[in-house]
Amino acid sequence: MSNLAPRRIILLLALVIFVSFTASVTLAAGQEACVGVVLLHGKTGQPRVVGLGVVEPLRQAGFLVEAPEMPWSRDRYIDRTYDEALAEIDQAVARLAAKGATKIVIAGHSMGADAALAYGARHGNIAGIILLAPGHIPDFPAFQRGFAADVEKARSMIDAGQGDQKATFRDTNLGKEFTRIMKSSIYYSFFSPDGIGAAAKNAAIISPDVPVLYVGGTADPQTRALGKEFIFNKLPANLLTKYIIVDSDHMGTPAAATGEMIAWLRALAAQ
Q1: Can you tell me the distance from the alpha carbon of 103 to that of 146, in angstroms, rounded to the nearest whole number?
Q2: Once rounded to an integer, what is the mean pLDDT over residues 239-253?
Q3: 153, 57: one domain
Q4: Distance CA 72, CA 115 (A)
């Protein structure tokens, strides 16, 4: 009997350790399942394009994902004001919450990154922000110089009570210029350096409780132009706020950053 007692104690301890380990693994999985990610595509993009190599790995890692078609998509470009675009992000957030997400992260690529930052500056209840190769930065000096005449044209139309009237305006994407016909109020809301999309101002007013993962690409000219100074260095300090560079061009940054995103989201889930 004296030999059996120690064995029973050892078996009991082993059982306790196993149950504790199983509980901790279950808790970790539950935490990840509570995190929801709204993934915003870039200018003239599509949800499925930015989602390639991103959405499924995130879901397999246990995260909920919404990838809505935004007003700046290829088929919609641009059919809502910036305010109305943020309201569409609200709807995606609500869908994630309805699925059980308790921590919401807003992630965006290129123009979607600018929108994610704009949304985060106005919604302190989100858990985090992911900026993937930010683009369409209306307050960036080079952007301002390129579109000053069109912004002034739109502002003049608005001042004359013609905000709902359409006109031809200039734009650029991946270095290629083009024109689009849209309402002056819509154009002004997305291109004004003093508007909702002013990234430097938005970065400065993000809540210190909201961490930001900023990802740039080695072969992305916009990443080089913005550097750390224009957006990242204006963000408030947070232990999870991080700046990384992945080996990719502008379009490939989301897929190249998937592993970093998952690791960062897991750290966020564990908080």
Answers
A1: 38
A2: 97
A3: yes
A4: 10
In this structure, the answer to whether residues 26 and 58 fall within a common structural domain is no
Q: Exposure pattern of 101-136 as b/e (b: 16+ CB <10 Å)? A: bebbbbbbbbbbbbbbbbbbbebeebbbbbbbbbbb
Do 162 and 171 form a contact (C-beta atoms < 8 A)? no
Q: What are phi and psi of 192, to 5 degrees?
A: -70, 130
pTM given for the model: 0.87
| Host H or E run for residue 37 | strand 35-40
Together in a domain, 254 and 136:
yes
Do 177 and 131 have their domain in common?
Answer: yes
Residues 180 and 168: beta-carbon distance below 8 Å: yes
- Whether 84 and 106 share a structural domain: yes
Using the predicted structure, report yes or no on whether residue 217 has a pLDDT greater than 60: yes
> Which of the four pLDDT bands, split at 50, 70 and 90, describes residue 181?
very high
From its phi and psi, is residue 149 left (phi > 0), alpha (psi between -120 and 50) or beta? alpha
Question: 10 Å Cβ neighbour count for 66?
Answer: 21
- pLDDT tens string 132-160: 999 999 999 999 999 999 999 999 999 99
Range of the domain at 20: 1-33
Contact (Cβ atoms closer than 8 angstroms) between residue 166 and residue 181: yes
